[in-house]
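**Protein of interest**
===
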Amino acid sequence: REQVYRALGRIAEEGFGMLGLPGELGGENDIPASILVFETLGFGDMSVLVKFGVQFGLFGGSILQLGTEHHHRTWLASVGRLELPGCYAMTEVDHGSNVRDLETEAHWDPEVEGFRIRTPHPGARKDWIGNAALHGRMATVFARLVVEGEDHGVHAFLVPIRDEEGRTMAGVEIEDCGAKVGLHGVDNGRLAFRDVTIPRGHLLDRFGQVTKDGRYESSISSPGRRFFTMLETLVTGRISIAAASVSAAKTGLAIAIRYSADRRQFGPSGKPEMPILGYLSQQRLLLPRLAATYGLHFAVRQLVERMGARSSHEDDPGIETLAAGLKVLASRNAQETLQACREACGGRGYLAENRLGTLRDDTDVFTTFEGANVVLLQLVARSLLSEYRDQMGELDLRGIIRLVSERAGAEVQRRNPIRSRRTGEEHLRDPETHREAFRFREQRLLSSVARRLKHRIDGEMDSFEALNECQDHVVSLGRAHMEAEVLDAFLAGAADAPDEDVRLVLESLAALWALERLEADRAWFLEAGWMEPPQSRALRGLVNRLCGELADQAVPLVDAFGIPDSVLRAPAAFGSGRPGRTREAGPGNGG
């Protein structure tokens, strides 16, 4: 942990903690650049990456996005230089994903013109807080703002938890969360507050203020809308996790594919042993995941560019939905890819020095922090089910579902008009065929889940129960939408390739990913009538052929990630263990 903290200090010394801060504070006002730093750190030690994200992304980001000029001038430069190490204290023991119902309290006290922060019971302790167990001196604490007995909902407060000598502040209780599956260099802690007094100016009051005489004011009248607006400003964290997940998958693939191109086992009688990447089973294990990782790379990069181009959240509200969905797909892909890479390397993959098990364990938590994946997929689906996302706080769940079903009911899809028995390779490899399939699935799921919800609501079922009964359907809708978005980004990335040869390889990768996704979900497509059994059988053979075609390009494709050998630092990736070893021509080596 101390080694990781020292590494974070070196990063701060190089100025990387200041990238996203305003120019008047010595920063560069470049949040996309900060995300790219986070992405690059994902090739190395994940504990350093997470400490970077907590300090500069979550703690610093909360002050930047939820605070005002006073907070920026007072604290941000110190945060960016690591002079003020901090935490982001949202999650509680009893409430993780359900942020709206957090129970930590912040009571306005007119006698001190400030707030008293209280943990009302053990279940309201802040939990899994990075930087809390050892290094943090201040925390952004999310608590219910109570003024003269009236609860104004969850707001963010800056609460000192240690003094400059590292001693715990009066009224603050800190404990270590204990040993974890991964991220052993991150000091996750648990926080409780016993009437800790903070000044009025420690309320991060961009969206809600308390005056000196104790009046609550906000430019957003609806508590629900105010709450969601506050959370939407923190979207950078989910984009960063998606980017880091892609980096982890790239690292695993670089190790496993290089190893597979070098490792030889068995072969035809009387001939040399064959590289294991020449076997279809190894290709099937690794190459669809390589394709998925490339697709996610383009999708995340497109989102970062889109984020950098906007002037405000109101200009592009769809960013929040994409960030949630890409975080889900990228973190799940990282876990599945790293496990596949571990298995693909056999016993070498089980050695700690080859990093695959450590990377898998360190990224395990990516599937649940910054929002549990199953919850985020429901958020994606919910945004599809309403064009009035910004007004969601003013509608109860029943109102949202009724609105959705009325709008979606008019768009119920007929059986797919391109349904046929066409099994030709040209048709099945056509990117427009893939787009049609992915969008057909999304629209069919959208209209059918709306019908299911409407049927239950019309039957006087409680809206919460109705949504719960359809939850599997809702999650499938969210995933289908995001896969369609990734495909669009993948094809756009291929179209922008610098030369024809690269474009053709990327188009083949995109086809492999799309066809593998269709193959994985072919039961649904058969039930929905989009394909017939001959097409389903043809998919399997075409995926196999694409794997064989792309095997020769596998090593160049992972080399294109640009991970330096000194950062990759896995002996299995270098054959004899010597970085930079020249490989013989063969499957995976461009031979």
